[in-house]
Amino acid sequence: MNAIRQKKTIALSRRRLYSVIAVVAFIALAFIADRFFDAFTLRVFNLCAIYIVLALSLNLLNGFTGLFSLGHAGFMAVGAYVSALLTMSAQLKEMNYFLVPIVPWLHHVSIPFLPALIVAGLASALVGFLIGAPVLRLRDDYLAIATLGFGEIIRVLITNAQAITNGAQGLKGLPRFSTTFAVWAVAGLVILFMVLLMRSSYGRAMKAVRDDELAAEAMGINVFRVKVTSFTVSSFLAGVGGALLGHMITTIDPKMFTFTLTFNILLIVVLGGIGSISGSVISAVVVTVLMEALRFLDEPMNLVVFKTQGMPGLRMVVFSILLMVMIIYRQRGLMGNAEFSWDTLQGLFVKKGRKGGDHV
Amino acid sequence: MTLSLLFQHIVNALSLGSLYALIAIGYTMVYGILRLINFAHGDVFMLGAYVAFYGITLVSLPWWAALLVAIVFTALFGIGLERVAYRPLRDSPRISIMISAIGASFLLESLGVLIFGGRPKGMPVPEVLSNVIHFGPVSMIVISLIIPLFTFALLAVLLWIVHKTKTGMAMRAVATDIEAARLMAVDVNKIVSFTFGVGSLLAAFGGIMWSFKYPQLNPLMGVMPGLKCFIAAVIGGIGSIGGAVLGGFLLGIIEIMTVAFLPTLSGYRDAFAFILLIVVLLVKPTGLLGKRQAEKV
Prior knowledge:
- The complex is a heterodimer of chains A (360) and B (297).
- Chain A has 360 residues and is mainly α.
- Chain A has one domain (12-300, 308-343).
- Chain A has helices spanning 2-36, 39-65, 72-87, 90-96, 104-107, 113-135, 140-160, 162-165, 180-199, 201-211, 213-218, 223-249, 259-272, 277-293, 314-329, 342-349, and strands at 171-172, 251-252, 301-303, 306-308.
- Chain A has a two-stranded antiparallel ribbon with strand order 1-2. Chain A has a two-stranded antiparallel sheet with strand order 3-4.
- In chain A, a hairpin with a 2-residue loop joins strand 3 (301-303) and strand 4.
- Mean pLDDT of chain A is 85; it is low at 352-360.
- Chain B is mainly α and 297 residues long.
- Chain B has one domain (3-283): ABC transporter involved in vitamin B12 uptake, BtuC (Orthogonal Bundle), CATH 1.10.3470.
- Chain B is built from 12 helices and 4 strands, in the order H-H-H-H-E-H-E-E-H-H-H-H-E-H-H-H.
- Chain B has helices at residues 3-34, 41-57, 63-86, 94-116, 127-130, 142-164, 166-176, 178-183, 188-213, 223-236, 241-261, 269-283, and strands at 121-122, 132-135, 138-141, 216-217.
- In chain B, the strands form 2 sheets. Chain B has a two-stranded antiparallel ribbon with strand order 1-4. In chain B, strands 2-3 form a two-stranded antiparallel ribbon.
- Chain B is globular, with a radius of gyration of 19 Å.
């Protein structure tokens, strides 16, 4: 008895040790990346962090609460615009708004990045709450199409509110706040938040709603409140992700936040496994790297033997086929709804049958 | 506003409404049978227009022959699409099949960019259709008149098929209950294929007429009409063919009239449909002509 317990404690501390080593190694990698990577690679590296935030935010809805939402690009747009307008200097705004002057109450607002980021998230959460309260009465595909509709409405509003958002011209020269440190710190916090959330009673209530709404209701869960909470939190994260994206690309306009952007995030979530945090993280990295790596498909190629014309569209062909193949042949995605653990990793390398009976 | 201008707006609204109705029927039939939002439907619409375009320009077919070839090709394509992308997932959760539909839609759009090119192409409009005719002070293009006429003719045929033929009866049976229909010896796969074929045929016809009226083609031309027509189907009551037609006309009329009478709001044109959708979903989720369905536990 005692021996087993001791073995368990050792296994537990060993897993902790692995995790600490992994985190330290990653921080080291981030420092190296920040120092030595060339601008393009570093950008891809940081984009991974942003997509992790966005994928987790969509997975919270699609995977953990069972709400199929397609309006994510809209919430990202809200976050990106709020943060941009709060941080840009008065001078920069004057340069941007040459067609219609900016409304006076926004002209001289200029606050530091961190509060702006939080306000961006809150603004997006507020929009999410206002939209969610009526829309979440709908189910499945009706919810999907209604959220898609709201995403489009947000975009149309941004395009037309010339004096606030500069309309279709968009905003240029956003301060470059999305540093390696900033984006990965946010990504780390969001991962931690999601893990803790899913272990809490709130997270369990969300999963209960996902698995069976009626049963959840019978257990005394306020289904509607859980849905609205999940939607609001997800909007907050999407807003933060959108703001980070804006401050990385440094140019935003309404065309950026179309359904295609939601599609990319959905792709990440499906590939990683609907309902898996670690799946989303891994898949965010893989898809982001692939998206950049496959950019060559769209551009003219010069392979010694033959030259190909650029084939714009080929990259998206590859990704749509990837999504369809995945959903048809392996619906569980990379991780299903399981989570990464050191034991499974070990199981991959060490021969099975060793009876590593320390399941947690 | 003069009377003749008003009349012109009405004709425009009717022809846009007819086009919306044609596409909305495809959504509503597929949804009625499979409970699936066929996101790729708008792209099937685009495909029909492009096939007709290449029929006229590359093969130099007369326009009516190109139209026939295009709608047959597109109908077959729709049947194939269901086989490949939706049939393997028929027993999966509805969300999976919807994700597959989103994937199919993006695939068609990007294939469109790849094969047809991203740059817009001008549709050669046959002279018969682009002539202007005059009724006293009112003048209009032939195509604007032809579209509603053809739409009503097709609709009559469709309603005859659905309500008077054996295939139509099988379609209604499958829409009511797939399992029970199968037990009554209805070949469900055949009926689903037939439904997709008819839906795609109507979408192709709509797409070609659309490109005769607004003669510009691009691979993303189906996205907005597709979304709007799905909305039209929901407004009318999804699953009901009459509802889809009603919804299509309502949407077309509202859109044209708002732009005509309140030009300051024309920037928000694409948002109208969505606002209307959300209002309908919240007030009467079954749509204007839809039947209420009891929730199964």
